[in-house]
User: Which sequence fits this backbone?
DNA sequence: AATAATATTGAACGATGTTCAAGGTTCCTG
DNA sequence: CAGGAACCTTGAACATCGTTCAATATTATT
């Protein structure tokens, strides 16, 4: 039982790695089972012994991408001055840089859509939540009055806003923005958002509108 | 020459409308030429007389979606109190509402990717720029010191940030957010961004970092 | 060593976008 | 109005996918 499973696991790892490289080079749409099979040296049909379908394969690659992204954000959180505000700026810029350096893999995280009715497996869903936690800690330091639920919501909003800037900024479809300009814009708007949130906090929440 | 062209134009319009409905119902991936042909009553191959390929078809549908979106944003700009800040909030909420009510068509605007090498035709690129102009006017009122180029950049950043919140907020992939909560978050963050931008403006631009 | 369990293969299937020769329509011209 | 040129429509055929499966080869167990 060992020999077979060992080989199977080796091939599985090779398959996922080949898929990762193929997505990085040719985009999500360029991922072809026949090319993958040739790459790892097995028959086309054998792919389905290692993985249920391409959906799973894409999710497995996505899991690795999320892991690397997580590392990059962790690195950004701890490096540099420790003011929460500047930590958040560094995290946002790290997100931007990661997306730029891993453009196709990063895009694959959001482009991929399961066919309706098929639900995303647990191990894949779990990964995605982790991203917010980097933002959560500095936010908690900035807004000690807010409840964990409120902080979670604010964290997701901030993350989403930065994600949007990165997504549209790196898109060829709209006007291409040079990366340094994009980084500057992101840093500026993150600082503005934080300052604005703090000001609104002091002033008394929603009473001002 | 009139009879043939007339029929052609009628069929073309029917094709685009059928494509729009099909995307709205089944998503971008559910768009199939054979189904479209059956829908409008012609042969599968005839579709390629009306349209160069499905890429063009998708772009044509996208053009219509952008037009309707533009109308919705125009409506939001003029309705309600005329303070630029609240105009921007209304525009952001209108964008959110439009995306929620036209989820699949709105997604198609961003999901669709041309195969590499094929470039987007002019008439399609032109449409997309128009969206920023709704944001531009209130922004110009809020920041009279800024140059048109700076305003354009800020407008795109603001738009992108809101887009990100809407995109991730409406995504099933991450935790589903109830629409009213999302609207509240968007309104709050837009106000915070504007307040923060104004504060940074007063304080002396980038000198503070 | 024989037999059971499992893995691998590559041909085949069903979709799908796209093309194309054949045959029909429509339009212009004399 | 007749006849030919230009154009349109058709549906079969092609290439390319993901996926399946009976047959074969390999591995594990007794």
Assistant:
């Amino acid at each position: 039982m060992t020999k077979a499973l060992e080989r199977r696991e080796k091939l599985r790892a090779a398959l996922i790695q080949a898929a990762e490289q193929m997505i990085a080079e040719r985009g999500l749409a360029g991922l072809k089972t026949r090319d993958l099979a040739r790459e790892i040296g097995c028959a086309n049909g054998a792919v389905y012994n290692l993985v249920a379908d391409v959906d799973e394969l894409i999710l497995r690659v996505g899991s690795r991408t999320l892991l690397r992204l997580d590392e990059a954000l962790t690195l950004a959180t701890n490096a540099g001055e420790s003011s929460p505000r500047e930590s958040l700026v560094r995290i946002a810029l790290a997100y931007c840089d990661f997306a730029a350096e891993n453009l196709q893999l990063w895009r694959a995280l959001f482009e991929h859509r399961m066919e309706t009715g098929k639900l995303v497996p647990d191990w894949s869903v779990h990964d995605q939540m982790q991203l917010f936690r980097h933002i959560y800690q500095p936010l908690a330091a900035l807004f000690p009055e807010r409840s964990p639920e409120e902080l979670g919501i604010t964290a997701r909003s901030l993350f989403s806003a930065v994600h949007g800037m990165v997504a549209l900024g790196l898109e060829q479809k709209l006007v291409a923005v040079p990366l340094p300009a994009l980084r500057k814009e992101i840093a500026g708007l993150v600082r503005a958002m934080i300052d604005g949130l703090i000001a609104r906090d002091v002033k008394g929440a929603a009473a001002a509108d």
